Amino acid sequence: MHADWLSLVPEIGQLSLIIAFCFSVALFLLPLWGSYRNNLLMMLSARSIAAGFFIFVLISFLCLTWSFTQNDFSVAYVATNSNSLLPMHYKISAVWGGHEGSLLLWILMLSGWTFAVALFSRSIPLELQARVLSVMGFVAIGFSLFILITSNPFDRNLPIPPQEGNDLNPLLQDIGLIIHPPVLYMGYVGFSVVFAFAIAALLTGRMDSAWARWSRPWAIIAWGFLSLGVAMGSWWAYYELGWGGWWFWDPVENAAFMPWLVGTALIHSLAVTEKRGLFKSWTILLAIFAFSLSLLGTFLVRSGVLTSVHAFANDPERGLFILGFLLVVVGVSLVLYAIRAPVVKGAQGFDWLSRETFLLANNILLVVVMLVVLIGTLYPLIADALGLGKISVGAPFFNMFFLPLMGLLCLLMAVGPVLNWKKTQPALLKTLLLKPWVISLLIGLLFPLFYAEKYSIPVAVAVFIASWITTALISDFIYRLRHADSFISGFKKLSMSYYAMSIAHVGVAVSLIGIVLSSHYSQERDLRLQLGQVVEMAPYQFTLKSLIPIRESNYIADQADIEVQKNGKFLEILSPQKRRYLARGDVMTEVALDAGLLRDIYIAMGDKLSDDAWAMRIHVKPFVRWIWLGAIFMALGSLLAVIDKRYRTKTAEVSL
Amino acid sequence: MNKRLFLFIPLVFFVLLGLLFWRGLSLNPNEKPSALVNKPFPEFTLSVLAAAENPQHLVRASRNDIIGRVSLVNVWATWCTTCLAEHEFLNRLKSQGVLIYGIYYPIDFVEEKSGAEEWLRDLHNPYVFTVVDEDRKLGMNLGVFGTPETFVLDKKGMIRHRHLGDVNEMVWVNELQPLLQALEKE
Known about the structure:
A: alpha+beta; Four Helix Bundle (Hemerythrin (Met), subunit A); 4 domains; 18 helices; B: alpha/beta; Glutaredoxin; two-stranded antiparallel ribbon; 6 helices
């Protein structure tokens, strides 16, 4: 065994977590009190306390990671989620493979964001800064208490620790799990910053363009992480679950998707608040919603009120705690909002044909879509609570509303970016949009004709909208360069935010193409495949060449080697597996994928039918990668937006 | 009217939601069956999958075609691995003379019918016939959220039981067979 003090690492982690909790209490109280007493020292203390909070959470997190790497099965959480046979990188990612550890990761992210606010907000007035950090502190108190009271990851299995761990759920033994939760949590928790800004604004009573400019980069970057996180989750489901689907309208997917929808509305509404000083109350409300929905997501996932594939070990006590916390946070925020939010009086107007109108429409549509998803997700719960029985709502319900509403949103997206604030001359629209419209209409109408034998109208519509979004942006870009001396000087003159917006919007067009084309042109066959037998799925032919047993350190597997030919020419060998993990005996389907920009070939093994035959599922999925590629564009856009230089003013000055 | 009152709307909305969750915590979502038990099987008229064993050569079928005798109604789909696992067992039930009707439930709005027809051809057809729930209205009426699901119908066409997940030896012996025998005597 290890040296004596090393066996105490879990206790050090536990202690650090308690110290971090104390820091969070201090972070809540001192700066807030200072801001009302106008006590400079107390307001300034917020930064150091934020740093302390971050450091102690980090120590705690590292202690838990250490216990995982050392196979310390006396720690109950390690014993439940790891195994000595597990490869090292999975031991580390197993830290957030279960409820307790993922909650610790959540708190680590929260402390990281808090610390980042302390570092990068020196240019904003001290009073606001102190209040923002104090609100972050309040959120931190809630989550620290939650983990300490109901979900301690450092609980010991004493006096007789198990010899071997229970293993990480094999579904989670995957690169997708290593990166998906941290990125997703970055997004979830990132909205706490905007939320803190909103509450601080309500407390201060100051909601002007400057406020919007300070909170905007935080909202955008959180949104970027969330976009990436949601896309990664979908990508993971696609190749790991073996159904070939990439979105299931599962409650937990919805839980991440709702903050994304509101976050999207928020970053657009913030733009109006910054540039035109309008929609102030609405923006604040969206900021509160975005974070509340993140909390709601946490509640739904961890309390067991809804069934889902993302089953965390559920416990009503935990549910009750989060519900209580949710009530306090959201309830107090909304009361504060009702009392303090600015009431619109005779605001500056705007013409119907203006950027404001379109952004307003964007906001309304996104919030309606969010409400649809919310209703769909909660309906089973509502029905149950009202005694109507246990029912579920599936994909048909969501698709029925989601597709037309999002289609409309995308259509508006082609027009919105080229409009001016306040008022746009219809003539300008004609100059900017007519040519792109004609070109896109042609592309849209012709594409399905050339791509497939059967003409598909939804595909034509989607291709038209996606092309229009893109060509309108290009047309607008050319128009903006019209006075520039050269392309290069004009290119430099346009702001980073402009490029960010364009890239993110193209990202939506790319995802749109991916979603519609992959769902319309996918070919999918479930079949019995016998050794040597050829299966035709034009233009591909599949032959089962051999069946091999595989043995690895933590699983055994049956592997099928399938030769893929395209029009009779050899393309590749794909090798899907059916694995049985030794520690728990779980059986997993390991999909074989040939990923490509224009199509994926996807083979999953079903059941063994005889010694030389297996049930297999073969998919050919055109453009499926574009769904996630679009999300990468969106995240890239958010990155570009926050490095825009107008957010970096006055950082050199020390503000006192 | 005071405009500030509007700002209270989100709060009211939230309080209602909070009450709902409070109630929800004490209920168990896994205990699903069902609002539909002891209700008549919903009306439908849907096209029938082409299959070798289709005694009446039906092209379209409606509720009247499946009621009259005690039967199972099994909701399935080709993308569903559990359905594949269950299929062999359904074939066995058929050979024992159990009446099983199929509802084919496509998850994707473009999924081809031919895949389902092949499925029945390659894996044998345990169903008297299978209707295609094209717009998934029937599935929605039945509250289907995943496949496979199996409903037990009595002679009058009332749903008497709903089983989620695959039908296997254990489910059959412990759950379905006793119920079917009891229903036959009614």
